[in-house]
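<purpose> Linking amino acid order to shape
<body> The protein record starts here
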Amino acid sequence: MLEFVFRGLLNGSVYALLALPMTLFFTTAATVDFAIGAYALLAAAVATAVPGPLGIAAGLSSALLASSVMAVLYVLLKRSGAEGIRVALASFGLSLAIASVVLMIWGTRPFSRQTFTTMLEFGGLRVNPQGLINVAIAVALVVLTQVIIQRTQLGRMMRAAAVNAPGAELAAIPVIGLQCGTLLAGGLLGGTAGLLILHSSGMDFTASLGLTFIGFAAAIIFGIHSPARCLAGGLAIGVIEALSAGYTTGMVTSMVPSFFMLVVLLSGQLRASRYSGDRP
């Protein structure tokens, strides 16, 4: 059991990176970007096509390009007066389009790149060094994001942009610029998560929606307004997923994480304000 828990914690740290962009965009625009999983998939696919360290740069660049498309869509929708739900639906459509492009170019072959060939041992547990790297990167990015949102002038402007956009504009806060910048940052975070998964367990062209769902679940399960809660949600989802894979079989394995999320959401442990758009 300890091995499953440890493996879940390693995977959950990457899930937190998928949740972070949703928290950032929700903090600034009161809606979410459902193309996060597609950014991860695109980064992994491009990285496999470019050899060496340049593959990492190419993967992140492709994710950034994809998120810039979402930023353009967001600006167009805002100018037309579209509400947050339309932005979310547009991001879902972009996710499907990116997954289709990946399938058309790379086909159905899986994407995988193993960095380490030897395993580390800790008290009988065999650990891939890449997993420890994933945890270090995830924790560092979560801490950095938490500090930016809670302790900096930029973070205060981001929160003001979501709570009262017209008032923020009157205070000379570039609301649309902040929101588009958040989308671009989300693309980089999603691309980073995709590269970490590529060098760990790998993925295939069907991973986009699954990664988006996991990221969304990790973001909302303990409260979407806090990066630290994203990390806790990602770790919880990762552990539950690992335990269900170790002790169940078939369809039950894929259902357990979803069931866990529903139980937590319906158990009364979350305040209604966490979904009503209230900000700390």
Remarks:
- Strands lie at 120-122, 125-127.
- The longest helix spans residues 2-29.
- Residues 51 and 58 are 10 Å apart (CA to CA).
- The chain has twelve helices and two strands.
